[in-house]
Amino acid sequence: MALKGLKLVGKPIKALQLRHVDAGSCNGCEQELTALGNGFYDMQHFGIDVVASPRHADGLVVTGPVTDTMKRPLVQDWDAVPEPKWLIALGDCAAGCGVFQDAYACHGGVDGMRTPDLVISGCPPKPQDILQKIALWRKTLG
Amino acid sequence: MIATLMTENDWAAHNVRRKNLGAHVLGVTAFAGGRISIHWLMPSGQIAEENWDMDGVEFPSLTVELPEVAWDEREIHDMFGYRPKGHPDLRALVRNPRWPDGFYPLAGPNAPSKPQWIEVAPNNPAQTVEGEGVTIMKVGPTHAGIIESGHFVFSIIGENILHVDLHLFQNHRGVEGQLQGRPIGSVWPLISRICGADTVSHQTNLAMAVEEMAGYQIPEEIQWQRILVLESERILSHLNDLAQIPAGVGFSVANQRALAMKERWQRGLEVIFGHRLLFDTVQAGKPLDVDIEALGTLIVELQREWRPWRSLVQGHHGFQDRMEGVGVVRQSDALRLGGQGIVARASGLTFDARQQMPLYEGWPLDYASETSGDVSSRFKVRLDEVEASWRLMERVLQRSRIHGALPVWEPPSDLAGQAVTFSESPHGLNAHIVAVDRGQVIRYHVRSGPFRNWPLLAKAVAGNAVGDFPLINKSFELCYSCLDR
Q1: B175 vs A contacts (CB less than 8 Å)
Q2: Do B271 and B384 fall within a single domain?
Q3: Same domain for B229 and B100?
């Protein structure tokens, strides 16, 4: 039985534990991500949660246009997430189409680090859109 | 360059005199070409200006006489390379070791291009306490939750915080630089997104700046609409902060019920103003399309949930105990460091920029103030301000019922001049210093409420248990994005 369990390693899981990294957000995406924890959306009910450590996470959810100062902490957080792992760009800034693209201290989204596995656009995206997009995308993982 | 007739002593004396008259610093603004301007909001509501024209790259620091400008001067040093002579702590504030030598983003007239960053860690030297039994605890810049990024270096002994050194500006995007050289008509989406929590205040400041430069007076109906959207934002932001404080002590029921009120409020705002966080709502000279009936109903619905919730939190002795005496801001510190907004009003100060805003003239408004300066006072001020805001909104809505079609004004494309505008954001006095020539931004400086309050947070946590830091932090609920820009 233990061996059967081990076969799951490397395959997508149904629950999704995410670590959040703010890489220069205006706090709009944070507010809407926080709203997913209120009783209207209750993301935990769907097996989705924001966890305290990248080592406990299945992936990162990144907000903001990736400021230069946050670039290294972001990469370090990504490296600390165990494989298999996924990268979610939340909001237009992280997706590379936000209004701060051209600012001198911005790297223009997460793409410079790695192509995101899921892009949730919007400025900020509405909570129900975030939840729906994550739910649909999770199904495609098998 | 214009030779200055002011001596260093005059510079200090003039500005200290303003402070002693009860004025508030709106901004310490540097301009390419070597001018430093300090704008003061006088108790009369007038804006006074003191200018220092540099001969070279040095200007006299005022930090010793006016400690509240310590960060402003450090920021000018980082962004322009101008040196505040005599500054007691000229460590980098915004810059870090990744910034190339000689890269001063705001020193030129145009938007700076992206530099070649140096491949090192962005860590700046920290100020810590040394001694037997002192432990250094570093937190951030990323955090164990859904929180903006900031780095904190705590010096702790046992359970208690001796000192915290704030390493903020991790989220520095370079907004002021990005604005330079842009047509003023194209900056709305950027200004709207400086901060997701104080966006209406920022938009209103820009609108007032454009109207002031053009000499346009908006009709009173549009003024009323602006009050409605500003107060809607205050309630939204306060509901958020009022939800976070109980979360800081594990009081989940109060947290969840406040989050539910916030969600309903946001859903209503989306229907009425078109955006859940009120982005892109205020425009220069343009009326808003406000559904008066719907807004009135939304307020009534909020009140229905609010009253039992307020009884719950105020009647919960355990919760009250956890807030009392924690994270005290002394009135003298709030005054000396120029504290703003709720943080100042919870420490016995009564300043609220709405008292000076022409927009609010003639409207009765109940100003909240508490005296103990602790988490409990900051919580209480927010409670009272939510109710004061809806009372004001109800009055405005009553008068707003009858109006015809409102005129739409277009700002001229060759706008020129300088304007200093301010408003009371949910997080305190928020000022914009805007200079425009032939329709293009020459300089755009943003000085939001959190800028003055962050140093006070460091003061307030010293002597408290390290485990109470999240609670104290949430009771300030300072935006990082407003500060970092």
Answers
A1: 100, 103
A2: yes
A3: no
Instruction: Collect all residues with Cβ–Cβ distance below 8 Å to B370 and sequence separation of at least 6.
Output: B345, B346, B347, B348, B377, B378, B380, B381
Q: How far is B16 from chain A (nearest CA, A)?
A: 34
ipTM of the complex model: 0.93
For range B209-222, the mean pLDDT: 95
In the A/B pair of chains, how many CB contacts fall below 8 A? 144
How far from each other are the two terminal CA atoms of chain B, in whole angstroms? 29
Residue B128 at interface with chain A, using a CB cutoff of 8 Å? no
Q: Same structural domain for residues B154 and B72?
A: no
Residue B121 lies in a domain: no
Which backbone phi and psi does B38 adopt, to 5 degrees? -110, 125
B151 and B66 part of one domain: no
Residue range A12-140 in CATH 3.40.50.12280: yes
Q: What is the pLDDT of residues B80-120, one digit of tens each?
A: 999 999 999 999 999 999 999 999 999 998 889 999 999 99
Between A23, A35, A104, which is nearest B174 by CB? A104
B339: tokens are 């504290």
- The predicted-structure confidence for A91-112, as pLDDT tens digits, reads as follows 999 999 999 999 999 999 999 8
B196 and B145 belong to one structural domain:
no
Distance from CA of A24 to the nearest CA of B (A): 4
Min Cα–Cα distance to chain A from B259, Å:
6
Where do the structural domains in chain A lie, given as residue ranges?
A: 12-140
Q: Under an 8 A CB cutoff, do B193 and A28 touch?
A: yes
Same domain, yes or no, for B76 and B157? no
Q: Rounded to a whole number, what is the distance in angstroms from the first to the last CA of chain A?
A: 22
User: CA of B120, closest CA in chain A: separation in Å?
Assistant: 9
Helix B469-476 / helix B375-400 crossing angle, nearest 10 deg: 20
Interface test with B, best of A18, A20, A104, A123 (most B CBs within 10 A): A104
Range of the domain at B166: 126-170
